[in-house]
Write a structure and sequence with these properties.
Elements (H helix, E strand, L loop, with lengths): L1 H22 L4 E2 L10 E10 L2 E7 L3 E6 L2 E8 L4 E2 L5 E3 L4 E3 L4 E3 L4 E3 L4 H33 L2 H7 L1 H30 L3 H7 L12 H9 L21 H4 L2 E6 L5 E8 L6 H5 L1 E7 L3
Antiparallel strand pairs: 1-8, 2-3, 4-5, 5-6, 7-8, 9-10, 11-12, 12-13
């Protein structure tokens, strides 16, 4: 009876950790409605507008920030229109920038990042322990039946469910057990799965490594950062700028004394930075 109660409690514990992993905000960085203000106008990059070359605003693809006394490059995300914080990456599945991005887990249907990594590790490790426990209890049950019936074949025939559970747990233990060991290795080095697969072959210095003990304390004992998003807030429709919704007419004098009207239209904001900054001018001549 005690073994059944422990097994039910262990199963519920795994389900609770699964819910915390999949339902919690992994650390999504809110998108910006406008690109950063630190635009630089590169005269070498220009587009032809109205028969003349007009400089196009260009944002640097990367910029350097100081992390633990070391300069680290962060990339500009054209989708979210912001410079990603250190260790942040854009998930192609969720289409969001996630802080301390580890990977996107299809089994829980959620990104694994800064705010749910500890629950993901506890979920995987608890699943491995549950597989070990169920396998061991099923083997003990087969052993007790074998003592009563004399042979192992009769015992397996008496309790086929124990045999199925042993095979099921043995198969999945290789997966969740190996995943647990791999993430123990990553936590000890203060490294994410994304960083390990992308930069693992390089022998560069890991600026986030604080020692094995401190790395584990950072993952399991630090206070959880609040979410950057208010998911209960009402969505507000952003008011369009006057220059974006209405054309602007400008009267320009020709060298011959004729007057013409130049209409400047601002294109809609799109994911591509070049489309954000590009401006289309249409010139119409009056009746001559």
């Amino acid at each position: 009876m005690a073994k059944r109660v422990y097994q039910v409690w262990k199963g519920r514990n795994v389900l609770v950790l699964l819910l915390l992993t999949s339902a919690r905000d992994p650390g999504i960085v809110p998108r910006s409605s406008h690109p950063p203000e630190e635009d630089i106008y590169d005269s070498s990059v220009s587009v032809e507008v109205g028969g003349r070359q007009t400089p196009t605003p260009q944002l640097p693809r990367t910029k350097e920030v100081l992390v633990n006394g070391v300069h680290v490059k962060v990339k500009y995300c054209e989708t979210c229109m912001l410079y990603r914080p250190p260790r942040c990456s854009h998930c192609s599945v969720c289409d969001n920038c996630v802080e301390r991005f580890d990977h996107h887990c299809p089994w829980v249907g959620q990104c694994i990042g800064l705010r749910n990594y500890r629950y993901f590790f506890l979920f995987v490790s608890s699943s491995a322990l549950l597989c070990i426990f169920v396998f061991a209890m099923s083997a003990v049950n087969i052993k007790l039946l074998m003592d009563d019936h004399g042979t192992i074949w009769k015992a397996m025939k008496e309790s086929p469910a124990s045999v199925i559970l042993m095979g099921y747990c043995f198969f999945f233990l290789w997966f969740v057990g190996g995943l647990t060991c791999f993430h123990i290795y990553l936590i000890g080095r203060n490294q994410t799965t994304y960083e390990n697969f992308r930069y693992g072959a390089r022998n560069g210095r890991n600026v986030y490594n604080q020692g094995c003990l401190n790395n584990f304390l950072e993952v399991f004992c630090t206070k959880m950062k609040p979410s950057r998003n208010n998911f209960r807030a009402y969505v507000r429709e952003q008011a369009m700028m006057p220059s974006m919704c209405l054309p602007r007419e400008v009267n320009v004098d020709d060298s011959d004394g004729y007057r013409r009207t130049k209409v400047e239209d601002n294109l809609e904001i799109d994911n591509d930075l070049s489309k954000i900054s590009e401006r289309r001018n249409v010139e119409e001549a009056d009746n001559i």
